[in-house]
Amino acid sequence: MVELLSKVEVKQISRNENYRADMLARMAATVDSKLSKSVPLEVRTSPSIGEEVEVDELPGVLWAYQTTHKTATGETPFALVFGHEAVVPAEIGIGTHWTEYFNEEQNGEQICLSLDLLEEKREGASQKAAQCQQRVMRYYNKNVRMRQFRAGDWVLRKVNQNTRDPNHSALGPKWEGPYRVIRAVGPGAYKLAYPDGRDVKRSWNAEHLKKYFQ
Fold this sequence. Notes:
Among the domains are: about 55-145, no CATH class; about 155-210, SH3 type barrels, CATH 2.30.30.140. Helix content is about 35%, strand content about 15%. It is built from eight helices and five strands, in the order ααααααααβββββ. α2 packs parallel to α7 (about 105-115).
């Protein structure tokens, strides 16, 4: 054993000659310094996954999630972390243009270039996510009908499971009241009072109220 170890030689290779080491250094430099370096541990007394779920399938599910393009960003989570797309295991068995014409030297150069452009890619994904949120907000607001009430207005309140009379069946009244609006306590939220002047315990959203005409 001593004879074998005496023949071991450690040779230092510069980062310019070793693109793999340079690639790892670039990846480490892109990590946000604000991220926590500690790994939280949680001791569970019972399994967090039901018995009907196959634990062996979890790595495949996570891999599929990480390599699937998201509508909001237009990118895969894997690409936003490492700067380039991952080779799906199925591509190795079937054979694609990506795997058939693989060139290690050119691949290393492209990976380094992707790491240089990683921040730009993340900013583009962030802008796309903001645009997607705006589209969803416009679609939602287009179908929303704002209901506004003033102090002194009389309204009916929608019956829900918490306020439904247990003696009423499913064919019972859908609205109850009337109630008098005391004041607005927030955007679309109102404080109500019973006809005898007693305050209703909590405020109610305008979505559950409608104007009462005497």
